[in-house]
Amino acid sequence: MQNFTQAFALAFDLMLSADADLLEIIGLSLRVSLMAMAISTLIGLPIGAAIGMSRFRGRGVSIILLNALMGLPPVVVGLGVYLLLSRAGPMGWMGLLYTPTAMIIAQSILITPIIAALSRQVIEDLHNEYAEQFRSLCVSPRTAIAALLWDARYGLLTVALAGFGRAVAEVGAVIIVGGNIEHLTRVMTTAIALETSKGDLALALALGIVLLSIALLVNAAVMGLRMTATRFSYA
Amino acid sequence: MLDGAQTFDGNVTGVEVEKATPALLPCEVKGLCYKAGENQLIDGIDLKLTAGPVTMIMGPNGAGKTLLVRLLHGMIEPASGQVSWGGRPLDLATRKRQAMVFQTPVLLRRSVTANIDFVLKLHDGPKRQTAEEILHMAGLDDKASQPARLLSGGERQRLAIARALATNPDVLFLDEPTASLDPASTLAIENIVSQARDRGTKIIFITHDVGQARRLGDEVIFMHHGRVLEQVPAKSFFDSPSSTQAQDYLAGRIVL
Ligand SMILES: Nc1ncnc2c1ncn2[C@@H]1O[C@H](COP(=O)(O)OP(=O)(O)OP(=O)(O)O)[C@@H](O)[C@H]1O
Ligand SMILES: [Mg+2]
Description:
The complex is a heterodimer. By secondary structure, chain A is mainly α.
C-alpha cells in the first residue's frame, strides 16, 4: 500500500502529465453522463411541462410518484437494466450489456424522473403566475407552452445540470451494466471504486479530485445561472 | 368599370376590416349568478353597458366588483345567467377584442419591450402601433430594454395598461389600476385611459377613488353583496346617491 503523501503526489503527476488513461476515463464519464442528461431532458422536460400546466384526474398521484422516483437507488436501476439487457433478458439480443450505451440507458432512467419532477415544479410555478393573464389574452396552448419554456429557461437549465450532477457522480448503476471494463466502460466512479479496492490510491485520488472539481463546477454554474437570472429579474 | 379596378391600391383592406367587424356593444347581462360552494357571490345581476360612456364600478371591499368584471370578460363561468356582447355570446372572438388589467399586474419575465411584442404577435391582422409607439404613449421609452420585473409599481401598471391597449381592444377592463400609486402616476394612468376612450375603446373601470370616478366616469355602477344597487350617471351618483349603502359608502361610513 502506497503511503498517503505519495498517493497525492502521484495523483497530481497523473493530472499534470495529462495521463492518457486518466483522460480516457474522464472523457467517457462526461460522454455517458452528458448523453444521459440530454436524453432525460428530452423525455423528462415534456412530461414535467405537461403535468405542470394541466389539471387532470390522478395528477396529485402522478406528482407523488414522480417525486418518489427521484430517489430511485442507482443499484436497483442498474439491476433492472441488467435484467433487461442480459443475454436471457427481453432486450438481450441487442448485445448492449457492458457497453457505454447500457450505461447511458441506466443513467437516463435514473435521472429522467429527477428532471421531470424538478421541471414540473419550475413550469407549474410560472404557469400559476401567467395563467390568468394568458387566459385574458386568449393565448393558444402552443404559444403558452413556448412562452413558459422560454421564460423558465434559467430554471430549466438548472434542472438539467442537477440531473447531470447526479448522473456523473453515480456508481451503482454504471458498475452493474457497464462492468468497469478497461478502455471500454470504465468511468470515474467505477474506476475509483476499483482502484481503491486494488490499493492503487493515486489513480483513485486523481479521479476523485477531478470528480469533485466537476461537481464544484456544476454547482458554480447553477449558482451563476441563478444569480444572472435574479440580477436581470428574469427569474 | 374602371380600368384599374383590379389594381391593388393598398387602401381597400382597412375599410373592409372595419365593415366586417360587428359592434361589440351593447353588452347585456341577464340574471347573472356566480357561486362558490354555498356562497352566492354574484346574486342575479341585470345590466346593460352601452358604447360611449366610461363606466366606473364602485362598492365596498368584497362587493363582487372583481368577480363581475371577470364574468363580463369570460375569465370565469357563471353559475347561471347570460352575458352577451353585441347580441352574441361571450366566445373567443369576442374575448379577443377585450383586454383586462388586473388588480396586481402580471408581467412576463422579459424586457419591457418584449412584454409588448408578445401581445402584438398574438393577434394577427393590421397593427396600428409599434411597440415603440405604445411604450412612448405609456412614457416608458427609456425603460424599453429593462426587465419588466424591475419596474416600480406605477411603471408596472403603466406597462400593463399599455400592453392591454396594444391590441386596440374594443373594451378595456381595469381593476383598481391606481390603488397604490402616487397622484402623479394616477393622473398619468388616467390620461392613458382617457386617450383610449377618445379612440373609441369602451372603458370599464373599478375604483375606490371618488375623485378618480368623478374625473373619469360618465356613469357609475354601485355594487353591494353581489348585487348592482345603482347604475346611474356619475354626477347624480355623487350628488344624490339613492341607496343608503351608496350614501354610507361615499360618506366613508361602514356599509352594512
Ligand atoms: N374563488 C372564490 N371562492 C370563494 N370566494 C370567492 C372567490 N372569489 C371571490 N370570492 C369572494 O367573493 C367576494 C367578492 O370578491 P371580489 O373580489 O369580487 O370583491 P371586490 O368587490 O373586487 O372587492 P375589493 O374591493 O376588495 O377588490 C369576496 O367576499 C371574496 O372573498
Ligand atoms: Mg377587487
